Amino acid sequence: MNEETIKVAVSGASGRMGKEVVKMVLTSPELELVAAIDSKGGEDAGALVGLDPCGVKIQDDLELALVESSAQVIVDFTTPHAVMKNTKMAIKHKVRPVVGTTGLTPQDIEELDELCKKEDIGGIIAPNFAIGAILMMKFAAQAAKYMPHLEIIEYHGDQKLDAPSGTSVKTAELISESRKEFRQGNPDEKETIDGSRGGQYNGFRIHSVRLPGVFAQQEVIFGGHGQSLKIRHDSYDREGYMPGVNLAIQKVIDLNGIVYGFEHFVD
């Protein structure tokens, strides 16, 4: 990575996560905010997050913002409906994507990886940038080698658009790398209410809770003869994701192709 500051654009800058990213970039000496994009354009990005005006106005035209700003990296926390289009646009202009928006399919990620390699740039797509959440995933994958009977319960606010969460899907993928697939529970079990046992992934279940007042939590529950184990992570504030986002911005400069999952940067 160069010793110079990294020029960063933030997509979804007026959203709850976007504001936190804007604030983090503006207060990080190694980063420089050069563009802020949101459908609610016009306001100074610094003033938006309670800091001194920074001279970067929020724009509603992503392509124009990328071209005018000469951004090196774009951080996207928008919506599942917009993220694919945004990321392809960024790659087209050789701007390295750091994506925290969930909802991309494996096929989407494969397509973005090919586009990045074609442009000789890197990208990071991660369902969760919180270091504690990454450790939870890693610990769960390790535990599954010894206690393969498990279920995942994830909790989010009632306005979250996708279920199950990207974090729970990533956790399930990591677990499946160390656990042979088999169907748990009684083979004759029957749901008297559809969906009451949750979604099934490689033989184990994922349950999504959506309630007002809930931020973001996840627990993986393991069961064995005469014992159980729970591995849980709780996020209380969006600020907890920012050290990971900062690190991702610095790491993506030296990548080629898409890296899926922030666990690759947490030893």
Write up what this structure looks like.
There is one protein chain. The chain is an alpha/beta fold and 267 residues long. Helix content is 32%, strand content 25%. It contains eight helices and twelve strands. The strands form two sheets. The chain has a seven-stranded parallel sheet, with helices on both faces. Helix 4 packs parallel to helix 5 and helix 6 runs parallel beside helix 7. The chain is elongated. The mean pLDDT is 94.
Secondary-structure map with pairings?
Elements: E1 6-11, H1 16-26, E2 31-37, H2 45-48, E3 58-59, H3 62-69, E4 73-76, H4 83-92, E5 96-99, H5 106-119, E6 122-125, H6 131-144, E7 150-156, H7 166-178, E8 199-201, E9 204-210, E10 216-224, E11 227-235, H8 242-252, E12 257-260
Parallel strand pairs: 1-2, 1-4, 2-3, 4-5, 5-6, 6-12, 7-9
Antiparallel strand pairs: 7-10, 8-9, 10-11
Helix pairs in contact: 4-5, 6-7
